[in-house]
Amino acid sequence: MEAVSFARGVPAPECIPVEELADCAETVLRRDGRTLLSYGDAAGYIPLRSLVGRWFGVHPYRVVLTNGALSGLGLLAQRFGRNQNVFVEYPTYDRANNLFLAAGGALTAVVVDEHGMDPEDMALHLQTTMRPALTYVIPTFQNPTGHTMSLERRRRVVEMVDMYDLLVVEDDPYGLVRYEGEPVPALFDLSGGRCIYMSSFSKTISPGLRVGFMILPSDELAAAVVEEASSTYITPVLTGQAIAHEFISRGAFEPNLERVKGLLRVRRDAMLVALEKHFSGARWSRPNGGYFVWLELPPGTVAQTVIDRAEGVTAVAGQAFGGMPNTVRLAFSFAAPDEIEAGIERLAAAV
To answer: pLDDT > 70: what percent of the chain?
Structure first.
């Protein structure tokens, strides 16, 4: 029996433009290999910083490239979250929690529902607990739930940024991977650039390039992050950053993004159809983009027991992200559509 993986949020192999990236790699290494394969500026490859700066209408000094977005979050945790209070969504990305805890941070959980993080719950915590050094949110196609924060809630969060002088980190790796519906403005845009915006090219080009980026609210904050980067890993992966820049400069980014969205939309649809067919007495999210569906099994069901019992299926119990014992995160991004149908049927049989 072929194993079906709903466990990891990784793109299917056919999503990665291997031949084009191979050509980009050869081009940049032949053109500038001695520079790219040596140590470099801890803030990252200058041409890519400039390109990202143009996208967001900011000076390149405010752009810091990192070895994947998670590496950037680790820098923020070490620099600003060390032994401090950190607001996080509940549930949220497990590896982000681990980084904050490793830095000695104390986590305050803010509830997430189908409309994203609840700003009124956040306001209550601001009145009753120590002011956070950082507030970490994934407002669009959240990991693990797939939920998107509404525009009304985003505006309320921005109000609190002003009122309490908060440092909000907006993690947005999935925002461009939208299958339907209209985009919602980023917290970064609504706040006039006062939030830290994080993303990467892992979901839009390739995760193996390890190219993430941050837009910092000020040159001073960017310099502090670069200092942390320099003392942590000395130099970023300049070769991967140069490949990403070449790929974008050739005009390959937008066509590739549309291709990837088409491949993943089919998988999202296959999962929603399979859940409708095989599950009763359960609820699940219906994301307009991203990689994940959040499954809520009938009350009293222990998700980890179901996963352990399911033949040839891997998934992650929601408790790993702070969810209730009856929840499961299902990643639809990797498995083929026919595998998704088979995997959901096996999971339902285990319930």
So the answer is: 100
What tokens appear for 59 in the block?
Answer: 């000076």
Q: Which fold has domain 18-249?
A: Aspartate Aminotransferase; domain 2 (3.40.640)
Structure tokens given for 94? 């497990």
Mean pLDDT on 82-92: 94
- Determine contact, residues 192/183, Cβ cutoff 8 Å: no
Question: 141: pLDDT confidence band, cut at 50, 70 and 90?
Answer: very high
Q: What is the pLDDT of residues 276-307, one digit of tens each?
A: 999 988 999 999 999 999 999 999 999 999 99
User: Taking Cα atoms as reference points, which of 69, 101, 74 lies closest to residue 85?
Assistant: 101
**How is 244-294 classified by DSSP, letter by letter?**
HHHHHHTT-HHHHHHHHHHHHHHHHHHHHHHHHHH--S-EE---SBSSEEE
| CA separation for the pair 166, 204 (Å, rounded) | 30
Percent of the chain with pLDDT over 90: 95
The structural domains of the chain, with segments of one domain joined by +, span 4-15+254-350, 18-249
How far is it, in rounded angstroms, from Cα 76 to Cα 96?
11
- Torsion of Cα atoms, 84 then 89 then 91 then 92, to 10°: -80
Task: Give the C-alpha separation, 134 to 130, whole Å.
Answer: 11
The CATH code of domain 4-15+254-350 reads 3.90.1150.10
Phi, psi angles (nearest 5°) of residue 7? -85, -40
**Do 4-15+254-350 and 18-249 agree at the fold level?**
no
Q: What is this structure's pTM? A: 0.95
CA dist 38 and 313 (Å) reads 43
